[in-house]
Design a protein that fits this description.
single chain; mainly alpha; Ferritin; 9 helices; flat
């Protein structure tokens, strides 16, 4: 199997037009043997609303583990009206862990290829992997510094992990191509960039200017990830190989990114 880029043509039997005679019989049989009732989705919507009203929230924000953390958490609650900062820090921690593992799985798929010359440079993917790991370590240090526990699972972190499960299923599936896996990385990078932007805004509103600067450095790196992965997906889709020379990170033009 060619698991590098675009999938090959094959005998795909999923469409009804593969067997037009039998599909007509199947459709007619469904009509004859079922008795659909008139209506819409309002009944199930009402039932869901009942469950929503009765359900508890998805977890809670963990208590600070130090007196300093308690003081800063109280200050945040006064300024923000909630504990959004700690919740979103937990989310970024979970997401950067997921990002690290996604790149790890992508690199594994690269090593399985018989046509590595068509694919992105391994060194660049390893760079992105290490930067995701660095971002994870940064957020863990920040949570500890402000009195939190990086091993605790906040509500936003819980949701992030659940949402990422589908990405892992695609990238680690032995049947998916490198390109199909790379498209999942592109989705993750889009979400990752938006997450860092929001975290920077929260840090600035909470008077954490130094943290905002550190987070901006992470966002700059994530922005480069996004642009690069997007280029890889485009070239592998259109040309079945990487044909453009890669930008060197030190030559990356942030002004150009902002304009586009």
């Amino acid at each position: 199997m060619n698991n590098d880029a675009n999938p090959d043509l094959g005998l795909n039997r999923t469409g009804t037009k593969m067997s037009p005679v039998d599909s007509v019989k199947t459709t007619q049989g469904a009509k004859d043997l079922t008795n659909p009732t008139p209506g819409d989705c309002s009944a199930i919507a009402e039932n869901r609303i009942l469950y929503i009203k009765e359900a508890d929230g998805l977890g809670s924000i963990p208590l600070p583990t130090t007196l300093r953390g308690a003081a800063e958490a109280l200050q945040e609650q006064v300024m923000m009206g909630n504990h959004a900062m700690m919740d979103k820090l937990g989310e970024r921690l979970a997401f950067e862990r997921s990002g690290t593992r996604l790149y790890e799985a992508l690199i594994t798929k690269y090593h399985s290829s018989d046509h590595k010359e068509r694919l992105p440079e391994l060194a660049r993917m390893e760079q992105f992997y290490l930067e995701e790991l660095k971002h994870f370590q940064l957020v863990a240090e920040v949570i500890t510094k402000i009195g939190g526990d990086p091993t605790s699972l906040t509500p936003a972190a819980d949701i992030s992990g659940i949402a990422a499960a589908g990405w892992f299923q695609v990238v680690t599936d032995p049947r998916t191509t490198f390109l199909q896996s790379l498209e999942i990385i592109l989705q993750a990078e889009l979400v990752d960039n938006a997450g860092w932007e929001l975290l920077i805004e929260l840090a600035e509103r909470n008077g954490m200017g130094e943290l905002a600067i550190q987070f901006q450095q992470s966002l700059d790196e994530e922005s480069f990830h996004l642009l690069t992965v997007k280029q890889w997906v485009q070239e592998l889709t259109l040309n079945d190989e990487i044909i453009s020379p890669e930008q060197n990170y030190v030559e990356f033009d942030m002004d150009s990114l902002i304009k586009h």
